[in-house]
Write a structure and sequence with these properties.
The structure is a single chain. The chain is an alpha+beta fold and 264 residues long. The chain contains 8 helices and 9 strands. The strands form 2 sheets. Strands 1, 2, 3, 4 and 5 form a 5-stranded antiparallel beta sheet that branches. It has a 4-stranded antiparallel beta sheet with strand order 7-8-6-9. The radius of gyration is 24 Å and the shape is elongated.
């Protein structure tokens, strides 16, 4: 069976060893492929699954995609612990080592430019959610008020109006809080990126996402950044703040994060 080369990231040469038992996509251990002053971190993957046609089919399979993405991220996380990687898009595959080196040769100047900008920096993710309200009035099972009588109908509508106003108040507070938080964190970080709000149906997270942002922070300042987020979120009733990281700087790699998933 022919083995292709799956590329996780490009980085500068590093001395620290990756974990001995680390495995990547398709269960193969990652290795370093050096070219000039750059290193591509690659592993072998079977052509039957990662040639262009089968890979495109697999990318429509949520279970396969989840397993592959976790294996990919596992390698990126290991690299982030020992160096500053420039992660490539999930599913970046080449025919052989020569194809990887040709890519590195063609993009060497761009890789070095981005690595210079990212050196010693990590990405932190911050999300703000409006929490579900615990006292929602149940919708009636049929048109009209849930109980008989004018009084009960007026009471029901009054409770609905009260809850609607409460939701609107929380939403407004959350939006204003998210704006202030983003301004504060942007001033602390070297760069910031706003992403589209996260879909609850896809993420499984409770509440409505009103801020989904990434911040590029010097690794040495990460503890201070975490403390800043903790301080800012203390006085936010009905609002949940989620902090994730440190990650490789996916949001700040420019064109490399948007490349076609199958490279030849």
């Amino acid at each position: 069976m022919t083995a292709l080369r799956y590329v996780y990231a490009v980085c500068r040469p590093f001395r620290s060893a990756l974990q001995a038992q680390l495995t990547g996509v398709a269960g193969a251990p990652p290795k370093q492929l050096t070219h000039h002053g750059l290193v591509a971190v690659v592993s072998t993957v079977p052509e039957a699954d990662f040639a262009e046609a089968p890979l495109r089919a697999h990318l429509e399979d949520l279970d396969w995609l989840t397993v592959t993405a976790r294996a990919h991220q596992q390698v990126i996380d290991a690299l982030t612990a020992v160096t500053t990687p420039l992660p490539l898009r999930l599913g970046t595959v080449f025919r052989d080592d020569s194809g990887v080196r040709t890519m590195m040769e063609a993009r060497e100047a761009d890789f070095l430019r981005v690595l210079d900008r990212l050196e010693g920096r990590v990405e932190w993710g911050v999300k703000v959610f409006v929490e579900p309200q615990p006292t929602e009035v149940a919708e009636p099972t049929a048109p009209g008020p849930p109980e008989h009588g004018a009084g009960s109908g007026r009471d029901y509508l009054r409770r609905r109006r009260t809850q609607t106003r409460a939701r609107e108040d929380v939403w407004q507070r959350a939006t204003e809080f998210a704006g202030r938080l983003h301004e504060t964190l942007s001033a602390f970080g070297e760069e910031a990126r706003l992403h589209a709000p996260q879909s609850a149906a896809l993420s499984g997270a409770s509440g409505q996402n009103v801020l989904n942002a990434a911040y590029l922070v010097p690794r040495a300042d990460s503890e201070e950044f975490v403390e800043l987020v903790d301080r800012e979120k203390d006085d936010a009733p009905g609002i949940r703040v989620e902090l994730t990281g440190p990650w490789a700087a996916y949001s700040f790699t420019g064109e490399f994060a948007e490349e076609t998933e199958v490279e030849r």
